[in-house]
Design a protein that fits this description.
single chain; 739 residues; alpha+beta; Hypothetical protein af1432; Beta Polymerase, domain 2; Ubiquitin-like (UB roll); 5 domains; 4-stranded mixed beta sheet; 29 helices; 21 strands
Length: 739
């Protein structure tokens, strides 16, 4: 139906609609056509003044998309939505218009495949990522959205030659990066193969032509090889009483191309480009047929895959075995039942195949593709950054998988490259939250250890262990990263609450009031328009609500009392000493998400410090002599008194630069000093030029006193001319200015 001229020759839209309906009935007999007929006429009218890049009327595209859907035996709602899929994006028609005319199902499907409009997003990348996100959410409501999108993409690829080269490359690349692996994730093998080969044709035209010509040229040889395997196999299966259908074919062009790249070999040295499919009636016969095959030919052990006992995450089930013939020819055999074959080719589309006047089977609750989609919808809720969403969406699409076992023998499927931490979260969120490592085949491994297929993994946990930002580098799967981010967000909220409570109660205490703070909470919340006291504390801790504004409430109401004699003495001592409070906010004793140490001056325990409440990010701590302090020191709403907690349990980071005469053993003497003080070197560089040494070390230290001792020891080394703490004052306005 790509040739639109036949419909154009019609004398009227009604006549064209009748011709189109006849075409639909040829490929999908018995389908109800009233809705399709109405959608055709509406699409004709909506697109009548539009022309494609090829010069043909725009209606050629939606008609072709609808025909692709009809050829897949899809229902009338899906075909009608295919006819209308561009009207929201390219015409004045609204979703409400479609709903009134064709019903909510059609309107929702069309909206689901409509791109995010340009005016809504800042960049093309953000717009693209949000379009994918919208598509996923629409798929969660109705999976037919993605089936229409695949048909749309297939027809666009078939007619891509009319676009400029840059646009062609972008569409073909996106197809291989997103749509093809998405089709595989949803089990739609037939769609994936066509997307692959069409994108390959446009992206690498010379390679495509070369492979096609060689496949065509080797047709006679292939037929002979297939018959050498297929003939004896049919005979052997019949002797065993197995009723089987066999079909041989070369692998798809893009698949062959990938084999050549992966193995670094030319076409003539890729021997396993042929596949023979054996379809039987039961799972029992699958394994029986496997025994027959291995009795006839030598199997290649490392190429055997049993996807029946361990199905792929998209629901694909089949046995793959590669065997070697008598003349050294190699062929892959795929053994499956008819039901498995239907799932392998159609995937989720099989759920909407038109059958006997109604829809096919409902999607089962344990449907693999639906389970994957549910997980994707879950983790994307915690990703607000479009670029990160797009990256992890792409990573999770690719089909390379590993199969790992729990100690009880349960099978866990993970993307290739997954770690111990990913496994822990895949088993249970609680295991991942407290994971400290695992026993992998009996050997203790850290959380970042990469897993391989067949391994048995027992997660090791510690109840006091909780996620940190650093754990994200060990989490490769979206599920694990989403769970860690969710925990961190919740922890950050609690830290904000705790910090805000400490700040407001400290400020309230300074007022020397006559009544407890809690007595004033109901009226205070009503005055500020805040729902509860926890939210009040959170807003103060985040810096969204200055504590001075809260204090003005009390000051305006003169909620004070005259200080008692002992309090007067205390106030007198504070006045003559200049001390505002005994301690202020204590920092440095623990890893508090709402306390950040400014990178512009790298304060460490012992430095004189000052705090600055940043909007939404808690307290930023600076050295008192940091030049950036001038940006906010006069802002009473933001400046906050902070002091080092005497516990000094948290590690802090400094950078040292050492210069002097180069000689053998200098590096050893310096690192020995670090070892004496128990200091960890996180990074280091050593340069030597004209017999001068320049060494830089990034260190984890406890406090300023420890740093001073280290500096004194290094200065005593004879060849050292200068040792200094560096990267202290770096302007970073975006980091420190209030938002």
């Amino acid at each position: 139906m790509d040739n639109f001229q036949a419909l154009l020759s019609s004398s009227s839209p009604e006549a064209a609609a009748e011709q189109f309906i006849n075409k639909i009935l040829e490929v999908n007999p018995g389908i109800s056509t009233d809705l399709i007929h109405s959608a055709f006429l509406f699409s004709w009218d909506a697109h009548k003044d539009q022309v494609r890049k090829s010069g043909e009327p725009y209606l050629a595209h939606p008609v072709s998309v609808a025909m692709i859907l009809a050829e897949q035996k899809l229902d009338s709602v899906t075909i009608a939505a295919g006819l209308l899929h561009d009207v929201l994006e390219d015409t004045p028609c609204t979703q409400e218009d479609l709903a009134k005319r064709f019903g909510e199902d059609v309107a929702l499907l069309v909206d689901g495949v409509t791109k995010i409009r340009a005016i809504q997003m800042k960049t093309r990348e953000d717009r693209q990522a949000e379009t994918y996100r919208k598509m996923l959410l629409s798929m969660a409501k109705d999976l037919r959205v993605i089936i229409i999108k695949f048909a749309d993409r297939i027809h666009n690829l078939r007619t891509l030659k009319y676009l400029d080269p840059e646009k062609i490359r972008a569409i073909a690349t996106e197809t291989l990066d997103v749509y093809s692996p998405l089709a595989m994730r949803l089990g739609m093998g037939r769609i994936k193969w066509e997307l692959d080969d069409l994108a390959f044709k446009h992206l690498y035209p010379s390679d495509y032509k070369d492979i096609v010509s060689k496949v065509v040229a080797s047709h006679t040889d292939r037929e002979a090889i297939l018959e050498a395997f297929e003939g004896p196999l049919r005979t052997a299966l019949e002797q065993e009483g197995i009723n089987a259908t066999t079909a041989g074919r070369p692998k798809h062009f893009y698949s062959i191309y990938n084999k050549m790249l992966k193995r670094g070999k030319p076409f003539d040295e890729i021997y396993d480009i042929l596949a023979l499919r054996i379809i039987v009636n039961s799972v029992k016969e699958c394994y029986h047929a496997l025994g027959v095959i291995h009795g006839l030919w030598m199997p290649v052990q490392e190429r055997f895959k049993d996807y029946i006992s361990a199905p792929k995450s998209n629901g694909y089930r089949s046995i793959h075995t590669t065997v070697v013939g008598k003349q050294g020819s190699v062929i892959e055999m795929q053994i499956r039942t008819w039901e498995m074959n239907k799932t392998a080719e159609e995937g989720i589309a099989a759920h909407w195949l038109y059958k006997d006047g109604g829809l096919a089977d409902e999607i089962s609750k344990d449907d693999k593709a639906l389970g994957w989609l549910k997980n994707i919808i879950g983790w994307q809720e915690n990703l607000t950054d479009s670029a990160e969403f797009y990256e992890f969406f792409r990573v999770d699409l690719f089909d390379a998988e590993i199969f790992v076992f729990t100690p009880q023998g349960s099978l866990i499927t993970l993307p290739k490259g997954s770690t111990v931490l990913d496994f822990a979260f895949a088993v249970h969120t609680k295991l991942g939250t407290h994971c400290i490592g695992a026993k992998v085949d009996g050997h203790v491994e850290p959380v970042g250890a990469e897993l391989k297929s067949g391994q048995s993994v027992e997660v090791l946990t510690l109840n006091t262990k909780t996620p940190s930002v650093s754990m994200l580098r060990y989490a490769k799967t979206p599920k694990a990263r989403s769970a860690i981010r969710q925990w961190l967000n919740n922890a950050e909220k609690q830290n904000s609450v705790d910090l805000g409570k400490k700040m407001i109660l400290h400020a309230y205490e300074e007022l020397n009031t006559n009544t407890p703070f809690d007595n004033h909470v109901p009226e205070l919340l009503q005055h500020l328009g805040i729902g509860n006291v926890e939210r009040l504390y959170e807003l103060i801790g985040r810096g969204d609500l200055p504590e001075s504004r809260v204090m003005k409430y009390f000051q305006a109401r003169k909620i004070k009392k005259k200080a008692a004699p002992f309090e007067m003495v205390s106030q007198f001592m504070k006045t003559i000493t200049g001390q505002k409070s005994p301690q202020g906010i204590l920092v440095g004793s623990q890893d508090n998400l709402m306390v950040r140490y400014a990178e512009c001056c790298n304060p460490i325990p012992g430095d004189q410090i000052i705090g600055f409440l940043t909007k939404g990010r808690g307290i930023s701590v600076h050295r008192a002599d940091c030049p950036n302090v001038k940006l906010f020191e006069d802002d009473d709403d933001r400046a906050i008194e902070v002091n080092w907690d005497s516990g000094e349990l948290k590690k802090h980071y400094v950078t040292l630069n050492i210069r002097g005469d180069d000689r053998c053993g200098l590096l050893n003497e310096i690192t020995a000093i670090f070892m004496d003080f128990g200091v960890n070197i996180t990074n280091g560089t050593v340069k030597s030029l004209n017999r001068k040494a320049d060494l830089t070390f990034h260190l984890e230290i406890r406090n300023l006193n420890q740093l001073k001792q280290i500096l004194r020891r290094i200065q005593k080394i004879k060849e050292v001319e200068n040792v200094a703490r560096v990267k202290d004052y770096i302007s970073d306005d975006d980091e420190e200015n209030p938002e």
